[in-house]
Amino acid sequence: MHWPAGIGDPTLIGWLTVAVYAGAALACALTARAAKPILAATKLYCRHDRVFWLVATVIFVFFGVNKQLDLQSLFTELARKVAYEHHWYDERRYYQKIFIEVLLGAAILTGLALIWGFRRSRAPVKIAIAGLACTGAFVVLRAASFHHVDLLLGGRLAGVRWNFILEVTGPAIVATAALVHRALDEGHGP
User: Fold this and answer.
1) How many CA atoms lie less than 13 Å away from 109 in the CB half-sphere?
2) Contact indicator for 40, 101 with CB cutoff of 8 Å
3) What share of the chain is helix, strand, coil (3-state, %, to 5)?
4) Which of 75, 117, 158, 166 is the most buried (most CB within 10 A)?
5) What per-residue confidence (pLDDT) applies to 178?
């Protein structure tokens, strides 16, 4: 198995992406810490919001670590090894398709569950859910890694690769929503 343990993307853009993930995680953590109910009746939703921001923190810490450890390549290598050992490597496209469909289905169901579960939360939480959906869509897009997808992600807009633009959009949306949520909480003390 060939998976070099080390920095997966030592480029400036790679580290900038890690910084965006770290910034999103920090914004979410600070928002979770500062979450306050506006009215006594909203304490339950405050707890839900706090849990949401904590989970978002963990998600973005994971993505930041994954960006540099390249854990998805380790997963790919392990899957390739299993495919060879169980003699279905020649049919891998079929299994890749199933994997992508399951991943996409899980992402959609998770998104719908979040929308339903946080339907009474304030707008910043709902916007953050959209940002997490963007992040999930990017993960599914990268996992697909079909040739035409790789061509799109390698393309550039104003000199910046689409891969970078699409990867940081979700965390940027979530970080912005977290900061707005925190500002709303600071403006409405207990």
Assistant:
1) 6
2) no
3) 80, 0, 15
4) 166
5) 97
The pLDDT value recorded for residue 190 is 41
Q: Which residues are registered as beta bridge partners of 161?
A: 156
SS (H, E, C) 10-39: CCHHHHHHHHHHHHHHHHHHHHHHHCCCCC
Nearest alpha carbon to residue 16 among 181, 163, 174: 163
Name the token pair of 17.
């992406």
27 or 70, which is more confident: 27
The beta-strand segments (E) located in 14-138 are none
Q: What is the mean pLDDT of residues 166-188?
A: 91
> What is the rounded CA–CA span in Å between residue 114 and residue 189?
26
Question: Mean per-residue pLDDT for 17-24?
Answer: 96
What is the tens place of the pLDDT at every residue in 83-108? 889 888 888 888 888 888 888 888 88
